[in-house]
Amino acid sequence: MSRRPRKGAQVSFTPADGVLPQPAIDTVLGLRFTIEARHGGGVDVDLTDLQPRALAIAFAGALRRQAELGGSLGAATTIKQHMQSYRRFFAFLNGHKEVKTGADLRAEHIDSYEEHLSDLGMSPIHRHTVLAKTLLALRSINADHPGLLDEGLCRRLSYTSASPLGRSRPRDAYSPYVARQLRDAARTDIGEIFRRIGRPLGEVVEDNLMDMTAAVEAKIAAEGRISCADPAFKRLYFSRRRHGLPVSSMSDELHGRHHLLARDIPSLLTFLSLETGLEIECCKALTVDCLRNPRAGTVEIAYLKRRAHGAEHKRLRVRDGGISTPGGLLRKLIEVTSFTRRFVPGDCLWIYCYTGKTQLRAGIGHPQAIIDGWVGRHSIIDDDGRPLHLTLSRLRKTHKALWYLKTEGHMARFAVGHSPEVAARHYANIPSLRPLHERTVADALHEVVEAAQPTILRPDEEALWCDGSDAAPVPPGIGRALANGQQDVWLAACSGFHDSPFGAAGSPCPQPFWGCLECRNAVITARKLPAILAFLDFIEGERARVSASDWGIKFGRAHARITHQVLPTFSDHLIAQARAEIGPQSLYLPPEARA
Questions:
Q1: 551 within domain boundaries
Q2: What angle do CA 333, 339, 345 make, to 5 degrees?
Q3: What is the Cα–Cα distance from 528 to 380, expressed in whole angstroms?
């Protein structure tokens, strides 16, 4: 193209403009180097112990290229997972001495490796993820060095596994009982944390130790921390021992007045995730400028969700007030960590003192041991009464489940930040909510059955019905019409003979006469007891005439309805009077009763 195109001038191209530049040759062939990950800082890569060396160098180069800008590996934790997968694959290759370089690999080696992973007891999904990391490296090697790998192996790289992947087991939510314990424990600790940081010196030391403590405090104020080997720290340590004061937690007490401590992290993460529903990895990646656009008691949290490809930068509006609200908690965290930031540059929100090695750290790794200690201190138990094993990644599901219960399953209100389909599939269809769904279905079926049942009136209710009282359990306006008996059918009074739920509107009811026992239009009163009792005697007599299966199909529901619902409604005295009215004469029954 011409060097300086101007407005209105034609643009011309030369054949050289269409020639792509040759990629730079990878000059790094070592097995030990550092990768600066886009998320999580530097990762020290050391693959010098892998054999064969030529293949290890190829894998190391693939790892480095995948972690470059635009590559598929962006987080430090993901890079470390790929390194562990490489080690597993090379350990398998130790039994295949014929493999010296990438050209010696065959498709059979990949299939044997998959069988090896299966023999180790890995689930299909776990086996798939481990195998995929090795195949991704081989695909990168094939792309950068065409013709190096065997043709059959290249065809094998087109798919991960020939066996079915199986269904994943989604994370379940904690029960409301466990969530309440976690929230109460977190709130208790958060209050103590912010009362501790910045507390005056005189409240934490004895008067005779004030000078030595002041010297240690001055060291911390100047350098951010003090080592256990520091002379000032040792003098205070032994002096406290001579006075019979506790010394095991002295470093925590001294540094805890200035910094967050590692033991504070579980309560802060737990409360933040339970209150906002943020994923744990998003909570860990929060920065000091995460609070945006405060408005009317709310504020937006700007966070990064790396796995939302194409929409990584997100915002969530939350409540903003005291430290019991997400916005107030984050604002307080930013305030109390300002002193620590003088010594640890960076914008990570989570900056704290790790007193085990007396280090100031930024960022959160995998603090499972600290989490277990926090759960143990508060004696948090699961639904079975056993000590809880807290998995932070389940807190988001717990928040969603609690919100689902609060919204009573109303999908339009529940699906916040997701489509209704995704919210239903990933956050509503979980094991902990299954009893709720089953109970809801049972209640709905019960309501349908109740709506289809006849209205049974005791004498006192019948009096209200005849008077047209608003307290009557039948629709107003039809009581007097049914009370005179002009709309009676065989076993009940019918409030809609030409509006039957079993037939078309305007046509007579097509059901046999005992169908009234299953119809919402039927109204059964004490004056229908003689007919009902006579029909009960008839259907019980039919037991001897027809088979049990035929009798159950024809009269089973009617018999159950009379004996379990109709007769228990009336007193024994009314039933005895009604049975006396039947008399010894044979009761006329419609023809369909004997059909």
A1: yes
A2: 90
A3: 61
Both 131 and 142 in one domain: the answer is: yes
Q: What are phi and psi of 274, to 5 degrees?
A: -65, -35
Same domain, 149 and 216: no
Question: Is 35 exposed, middle or buried (CB count within 10 Å of its CB: 0-12, 13-18, 19+)?
Answer: buried
**What's the CA gap between 34 and 36, in Å, rounded?**
7
578 within domain boundaries:
yes
Provide the domain limits for residue 121.
32-156
H runs (alpha helix) in 224-278: 231-242, 250-256, 265-276
Domain total in the chain? 5
Shared domain check, 118 and 242: no
Instruction: Return the DSSP state at 192.
Output: H
Query: For each of the chain's 595 residues, which pLDDT tens digit applies?
Result: 555 656 666 777 777 776 656 545 454 557 888 998 887 778 899 999 999 999 999 999 999 999 888 788 888 888 999 999 999 999 999 988 888 888 999 999 999 999 999 999 888 888 999 999 999 999 999 998 888 899 999 999 999 988 887 776 777 889 999 999 999 999 999 999 999 988 766 555 566 678 888 888 888 888 888 888 888 888 888 888 888 887 888 888 888 889 999 999 999 999 999 999 898 989 998 999 999 999 989 999 999 888 777 788 889 999 998 899 999 999 999 999 999 999 988 889 999 998 777 788 888 877 888 999 999 999 999 989 999 999 998 998 898 888 877 777 666 666 666 667 666 666 667 777 777 777 777 877 777 777 667 777 777 777 776 665 555 455 554 555 555 555 666 677 676 666 666 767 777 777 776 677 777 777 777 777 888 888 888 888 888 888 888 888 888 888 888 888 888 888 888 888 888 877 655 455 655 555 5
Residues 458, 586: one domain? yes
Q: Please list, residue by residue across 192-209, b when 16 or more beta carbons sit within 10 angstroms of its beta carbon and e when fewer do.
A: ebbebbeeeeeeebeeeb
Does residue 9 belong to any structural domain of this protein? no
Same-domain check for residues 245 and 278:
no
- 10, part of any domain: no
Token representation of residue 188: 């208790």
Q: Do 458 and 341 lie in a common domain? A: no
Residues 40, 134, single domain; the answer is yes
CA distance linking residue 250 with residue 212, whole number of Å: 13
- Could you tell me if 440 and 457 lie in one domain? no
* Contact criterion met (CB below 8 Å) for 34 and 44: yes
